[in-house]
Amino acid sequence: MPVPTAPADLFRHGLRLLLDKDVAAWAGLWSDDGVMEFPFAPPGWPARLEGREAVAAYMRTYPDHIDLRDFPALRIHETTEPETIVVEMRATGRLVRTDGPFDMTYIAVVSVRDGRITAYRDYWNPLAALEPGTDFTGSGSGR
Question: pTM value?
Answer without folding.
Answer: 0.87
